[in-house]
Amino acid sequence: MVFIAILTIVPVLFISIGSLLSAPKYKGPESDHFNGKVFQNIDGVQAKGFKDIFRLLIRGPKRGPWTEIRTIAPKPNPPAEVQEGIHITFVNHSTFLIQVAGLNILTDPVWSKRVSPFQFAGPKRMRPPGLTMDQLPKIDLILLSHNHYDHLDLPTVQKLVRAHQPQIVTPLGVGQFIESRASGKATDLDWWESFAFSEQIKISAVPAQHFSGRGILDRDATLWCGYIIDTPDQKIYFAGDSGYGSFFKTIGERHPGIDLALLPIGAYAPVWFMSPIHTTPEEAAKIHLEVNAKQSVASHFGTFPLAFEGMKEAQSGLQTALQKFDIPQEQFWVLEEGEGRSVEP
Fold first, then answer.
1. Which one of 61, 103, 114, 239 counts the least CB within 10 Å of its CB?
2. Which helix H or strand E contains 262, and what residues bound it?
3. Is residue 325 in some structural domain?
4. What domain range is 94 assigned to?
């Protein structure tokens, strides 16, 4: 009887918790990538389902080595603002501080120890953030690419809203979650839509190939995207989280003259499972060429063990890919935590 009770209670708890974690669903008109209920990738590409997840867990490869790094050398504070050129600081994972045209921008800010609904379980941070939150200058703008826990870290966003009151830009449907759970000022964008932050600064959402969801009832119920930041003198592309697709060439064509591209290189193994949602290092190198970026920077690697490659495999794979495509290594930076570099105008 006890065993039967447990079998009954566990699914109920799982469904109840999953329902509570689920984010609000987007409601709006249908489009070529929204069928009225869920969003879809270009060309119908879908993330793997439960059958393939089970196959991965049972027959998947052994994870490559990861070593937790508990401390790093303190890094200097970034400048308060940058008026000319671009100053980029890598915090880690997909979190960057972008300083351009007097504006301070954070992408997908994550300072939590785990990217999970719970801080006692889930993917653990294996490297400290390169900057503390106290080292940040006044943050004007936050760009959120989608609502997964390793990109939309609610405790971090709540702290940033309290400290800086930034404008937050989100894909369709994510803004209502930010406004209800973080009391933040959010603006939703569809693919190819733009938001004028000021007379001189424009933020445009561009396609990505991924999926969304925070619980079990909100799969693909909100959008995912990358962003183009347009200033009078500079153009920056933040790809967010994405698998490889034909749309990267379209982004380069519709937004020519990209000065700096932030491109994901990690969480790709095994490729048969991860390719719909994450790019390999070789694909990241191809994207650098397809969007015709003058300078690229690697993201989404070496911080959280989200796939089966080892902690350093994405970096070494990128170096191999750059050689294959005859891309000078200095055109695609792999930054250390807290490292800042400038892109001259």
1. 61
2. strand 260-264
3. yes
4. 75-343
The DSSP 8-state label assigned to residue 114 in this structure reads B
Listed in sequence order, the DSSP H helices in 62-217 are 154-164, 174-181
Between CA 341 and CA 246 the distance in angstroms is 30
The pLDDT tens digits for 301-328 are: 999 999 999 999 999 999 999 999 999 9
- What element of type H or E holds 188? strand 185-189
Strands of the sheet with 295-299, listed across from one edge: 194-196, 202-206, 226-230, 235-238, 260-264, 295-299, 332-333
Q: Which helix (H) or strand (E) holds 78?
A: none
Torsion-angle region of 267 (φ positive above 0: left; ψ -120 to 50: alpha; else: beta): left
**Distance between CA atoms of 284 and 243, rounded to whole angstroms?**
10
In a domain, 92, yes or no: yes
Count: domains in the chain: 1
* Residue 19 in domain: no
The pTM for the full model equals 0.94
Q: What is the CATH number of the domain that holds 157?
A: 3.60.15.10
The pair of structure tokens assigned to 304 is 């959280």
**Rg (the chain; Cα; Å):** 20
Q: What is the pLDDT of residues 93-134, one digit of tens each?
A: 999 999 999 999 999 999 999 999 988 899 999 999 999 999
pLDDT in tens, 262-290: 999 999 999 999 999 999 999 999 999 99
- For residue 202, being part of any structural domain is answered with yes
